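hey so u asked for the seq, here:
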Amino acid sequence: MKFQNGMWMAKQGYQISFPQEAYDSKINDQSVTVYGPYRKVEHRGGTLNVGILTVTLTAPRKDIISVKLTNFAGVGEKGPAFCLEADETSPQIKREGDCCVFQSGGLSAEINVKGNWGLRFSYNGRELTASEPRSMAYVLDDRGNPYIREQLSLDAGESLYGLGECFSPFIKNGQSVDIWNADGGTDSEQAYKNIPFFVSSKGYGVFVNDPGRVSFEMGSEILTKTQFSVPGESMEYMIIGGETLKEVISNYTALTGRPPLVPDWTFGLWLTTSFTTNYDEATVMSFIDGMLEREIPLTTFHFDCFWMKGFEWCNFLWDNETFPDPEGMLRRIKAKGIKICVWINPYIAQKSRLFAEGVEHGYFVKTGDGSVWQWDMWQAGMALVDFTNPEAVKWYQGYLEELVDMGGGQL
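ran it, structure tokens below
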């Protein structure tokens, strides 16, 4: 989200407040907290009628430093939140005049605790990035909605990568990216799997600890800054260091969690018609055989939603007009050494054989007045299965199990 009009002015409709100085601090053996009022305090009367940004440094893991920016601290936590694997690491903290050095492993943060505002990061003496004056900010729009913003310095030629699944150029410099999962296809700025984490060619990573809408301006508002912001009164981000980018990513996954290793075949090439061709067994086989004839290794064929009848997704029934012998077709595909995947959906169309059953037993998400929530996007009158209801989960799994038994225990 862009807040500025050029380098110096705020965009119309926004009020931007910056910490003007490090007025006071609190230091203990686990954290450093610095208080930055939004104007310089020239005399004691200057402490009246002015806000303060509170900045706290902690070390959730070795080689990781957390920076939490807070305007109003009394706002309740709404959730959800990322589940992070912090460990009991003890940072090294040393005050040197008006500067405090906060170190976690090889990663250091130098923060001014008195006087001029500033925060700088380095790894084993190698400069990484910095939050300079006018970078941290508290923003209010003309409706009173608050935002917290941070900007980190970029060097000439520094490249940025990451932010999860994006269909834009691989190098993110110059791009605006909103972290908000959406079913927008694969040719737009929307994406299905956004992640508020990026890495720099200078050898560090930045993780914004917020599962909501995080807006990134990757050198796209201020060319010499990477910027990120969240709505609300506070934001936490983490600088992640390492000797190499591989080590940076390893430190990141140690913090955020690592998935179990999936079977080897899932890393192979998957093929699908994906709504683009006529759909019958002959077409499917022509694609599979065409790959095999060209000696292109193929591990999986993926059936798009039209393995079921239109207007009936999800009913877990093969369209008998398009696929009159689904069990035989599955056997013939498997005989070629190909795994099979079918697209299933967490919603039930009104025309589906399962809709009335779901309504009767209360298996669908409801509106505030107790009615079933429905809309016509994608499938006419579709309702969402309420997977917070254990009975709805068993109901859905039962039909899924029938489909998997048809495939011989594994599609």
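The chain has two domains: 4-256, 264-406. The chain has five helices and 27 strands.
lmk if thats what u needed
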